[in-house]
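ok trying again, last paste got cut off:
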Amino acid sequence: MVQAFKKKDRLTWEENGIVYIEGRIYVPNNNKTREKILKENHDSMDVGHPEQQRMLELIKQNYWWPGSKEDVRKYVQGYFKCQQNKVQHQKKAGELHLLKIPQGPWQEISINIIEPLPKSNGMDTIVVIVDQFTKIIQLKATTTSISSEGIAKIYRNDIWKLHGVPRKILSD
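nice, full thing came through this time. structure:
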């Protein structure tokens, strides 16, 4: 026997002992049944551990129960493998930011050290200095034992002598 009636502006009917609301199966307040539906729409190889919103969309295609959104949230947050592999979209210390373009050449430079490299003529390290305006690169071969005094000498002899003292030096 098919019975149709309105309840809170939702079309509801019963067919073969199953209650439908807006064409979706109403899931009664039964933790085992709801847990099974959550598991099938998250852990199954067919769906591949979707995030909360996608999992809720999958469930809402066929099922309805009050509080399903909260149940999905709790299930996904409680699933250990998903939490391990979750991509974090929060700002973190050390996050990269775009640099402003300097007003002219050699006003802002960056320095990086590439080491260790195979030895060549006794050198195994390269100091890389880049002008942030023109992107011109200056390379200086050195050793891994270079000191801060050695770096300062490279600045003085190879950069400042040719281009003047920069306003800003960027280094990690």
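cool. The CA atoms of residues 127 and 151 lie 8 Å apart. The chain has two domains: 3-85, 108-171.
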